[in-house]
Design a protein that fits this description.
This protein has 377 residues and is an alpha/beta fold. It folds into 2 domains: 10-253, DHBP synthase, CATH 3.90.870; 262-376, Threonylcarbamoyl-AMP synthase, C-terminal domain (Rossmann fold), CATH 3.40.50. Helix content is 32%, strand content 16%. Bound molecules: threonylcarbamoyladenylate and magnesium ion.
């Protein structure tokens, strides 16, 4: 793995996909594969041993449930809901509240919570995928490699992000190799993920519905597309909770997105058209104090909308995250990893954004990465 996407012939691609599909279908091993959001670490959702191997390779706490990925609604009906009838309607097992969302957003970075088939008297999914939750999480990814893998294996694939637990999610095959080399047999390299943050997780089975994790589709997308049933959708805003606190989505309990280096997050006050030079001078002072207190020898600065490299009066590695929400999302995890793993800095200073549109998912990830070590400017 040298950083570039290898070029394969059609026959080689087919062979690689079939090999990976065979691992998913016929063994209890795992395969890392690209999705449009981040790389996933996949195993059969139907097999306890496969699911155990996912938790083990990532070192993931086993009370944190997994998303099941399917390649089509007919696969969901046939395999997960054991639907034998050919004239079963595509959405017949999906609560109505999701219909407008799925019509526009699937395949894509949207995960929905669905009734567990066991509760309907059908035993299909491994109980370990749902980790005692009253629902299971499901999505149809848009990435063609992901969908081909799921369709060829003819198996619903349980897949968390393919990072070692607590680290930033992987957006290239190289990131997966860095974290999981020696722990998994196969990585499918499909190049860089286009979205760069994980899927949006919504629960339409509670009233009012809830956005449990902001992600690839924005909250504003959900309200606009979901129609009247989603008007009152609440947003889970906590980024951390106590170990024993009962939460709707267990992923929130755990340290996540953390580089080795300390992260300092700079948060703009809302709706800034620009930042006054006075405020920038104050910010510079506070940053200098932090660099001195941390005794940081090597510093990185990831900038986005308002700030530039003149902010840091210190020898530092500067990486622009991008000038739109989508660009920042696409580069965020890759640049956190680059300065942490390749440049080995001790302090990463990141310019945050306003928490709306793509900014909601970006700030959710950054607040976790920074463990609330923040300066508001
Ligand atoms: O984009 C993505 O969603 C990626 C790709 C690989 O599809 N997957 C991903 O999985 O991010 P993971 O395991 O890293 O995050 C899944 C999140 C966790 O926060 C978990 O707690 C939540 O979804 N989750 C899964 N099943 C749930 C359920 N039944 N109820 C509540 N939350 C659930
Ligand atoms: Mg994850």
């Amino acid at each position: 793995i040298d950083g570039s996407l290898p070029s394969f012939t059609c026959a080689e691609t087919e062979k690689n996909l079939l090999e990976a599909a065979g691992v998913i279908r016929d063994t209890s091993e795992t395969v890392a594969f690209p999705t449009e959001t981040v790389y996933g670490l996949g195993g059969s959702s139907l097999n306890d041993e496969s699911v155990k191997n996912i938790y083990k390779a990532k070192n993931r706490p086993n009370d944190n449930p997994l998303i099941t990925h399917v390649s089509s609604l007919s696969q969901l009906n046939r395999i997960i809901y054991s639907e034998s009838s050919n004239d079963c309607k595509p959405l017949s097992h999906i609560p109505e509240i999701y219909h407008p969302l799925l019509a526009k957003l699937w395949p894509g970075p949207l995960t929905i919570l669905l009734p567990i088939p066991e509760d309907l008297g059908k035993s299909t999914l491994s109980e370990l995928t749902t980790a005692n939750q009253p629902t299971f999480a499901c999505r149809i990814p848009a990435n063609p490699v992901a969908r081909a893998l799921i369709a060829l294996s003819d198996t619903p694939i349980a897949a968390p992000s393919a990072n070692a637990s607590t680290r930033p999610s992987p957006t290239t095959a190289q990131h997966v190799y860095h974290d999981l080399n020696g722990k998994i047999p196969l990585i499918l390299d499909g190049g860089k993920c286009s979205v760069g943050v994980e899927s949006t997780v919504v629960d339409g089975l509670v009233s009012p519905p809830m956005l449990l994790r902001p992600g690839g589709f924005t909250y504003e997308d959900i309200l606009r597309i979901g129609g009247i049933l989603w008007n009152e959708c609440l947003v889970e805003t906590k980024v951390s909770v106590k170990d024993d606190e009962k939460v709707k989505t267990p992923g929130m309990k755990y340290r996540h997105y953390s580089p080795k280096a300390k992260v300092l997050l700079l948060i703009p006050e809302t709706n800034l058209p620009s930042v006054s030079s006075q405020r920038i001078e104050k910010l510079k002072e506070l940053i200098n104090i932090e660099i001195t207190n941390e005794n940081a020898k090597k510093v990185a600065f990831l900038s986005s909308f308002y700030l530039d490299k003149t902010l840091i009066n210190h020898n530092c590695i500067h990486e622009p995250l991008g000038k739109t929400g989508k660009e920042v999302q696409a580069n965020l995890f890759a640049l956190l990893r680059k300065v942490d793993e390749e440049d080995n800095v001790d302090l990463i200073i990141v310019e945050g954004t306003e928490a709306s549109e793509e900014g909601l998912a970006i700030m959710n990830r950054l607040r976790k990465a920074a463990s609330n070590n923040v300066i508001i400017f």
